[in-house]
Amino acid sequence: MTAALLLLVLSAGEPAFEAPVEVDRWHFAGVPVASYASDVGLTVGAALFMYAPDPEHPGEQDSLTLAASYATRGPRQADVAWVHQRLLGLPLRWRLTLHGGDDALMPYWGEGAQLGGLEVPTGSGTPPAPYRYHDRRFLAAATLRGPFLGGFGWHLRARFLDVGVPEPSALLARSAPPGARGGRVALFEAGLLYDTRDHELSPHRGLFVTAAAFAAPQLGGVSDFSFHGYDASARAYLPLLSRATLALRALYDHKLAGVPSRADAARAVPFFERSLYEGLAYGEGLGGGGSVRGIARFRLSGDEKALGSAELRLDLFSTHLLGKLQEYGVDGGIDAGWARQPGWAAVDAAGLAAGLRLTWDHAILVRVEMGRALGGGDETLYVSFGEQF
């Protein structure tokens, strides 16, 4: 079944790029997607990419991405991402992200990610029915990034998350963690960075290091909880051969209840924030295609978490179709994650992944990968846009 779906994606997914249409300096390309994963089932959707290279600054491009997908056992979601490289003509990069999702089978793995004491392998799909809840959420995030000197820079980020829980699971209702009925979070972040990558998409050499501090104060009618924290990440790209790159990643994120110097009433990290990490590379995890491949999504959740990855990427050959460059390659690696919630034992897991990759016009990257947990479980097929890291 998995092999057949992989062949379906390879035969219908990669060549299914619509011939890019160019209007002025903007290029348009569409990509249909079909994939299967043990945790979210069959996913179908499509993405529209619009990108405009800057002729005065080689390697830079503005972009707009629209995507929507439907999963039979996972989220129905829509995403918009806009990146503008030179705000007001200055070397200030602006990124705006909007996300809306509805997931009637969202996993809640229990306090301390222990699933109420039930033994479930980390590589399994969704937890049993009593441990899944209905999650509706809207996210809006804006990031401004600028340079200091050389590869050093800074960033500011703000995000708003509104989570609704129309139907809590039996375990969620019994555990009653902060945010069990949903809630809103307004978070503000400031950080420093060091970036020497030769390319942002499929880099072959360089470093990308970030460190940030963030706070989410309780604000009447806007933000229902109060917490703060710190995030640090490092990525290294080492060229091994003319066509091979070793990519390494490490990330640490820690959220703490309350905001210093404030006496907010709701000093707590809501349970739905335990599966999110902050920083310039803000994302969901740990577990799933964006963090620990082969591990069920959000399986490693906690106020404190760490992530490490090592991946070998190899370029094989290239073609020139429809007036655009296509580069084909393979990748393989290992991801490992660790998380801890105060008062509970830490949880950890690791997974292996390997797959194929296609880069289109130095602007769009599609990855088709198979992941499996080291502790056993189901193989999981991922179809993803952009680098995992």
From TrEMBL:
Domain Bacterial surface antigen (D15) residue range list: 188-320
KW Membrane (keyword) present: yes
UniProt entry keywords in alphabetical sequence: Membrane
Gene3D superfamilies: membrane protein fhac: a member of the omp85/tpsb transporter family (2.40.160.50)
Subcellular location: Membrane
Source taxon at top rank: Bacteria
Name of this chain's protein: Bacterial surface antigen (D15) domain-containing protein
Species this chain originates from: Anaeromyxobacter diazotrophicus
Lineage of source species: Bacteria, Pseudomonadati, Myxococcota, Myxococcia, Myxococcales
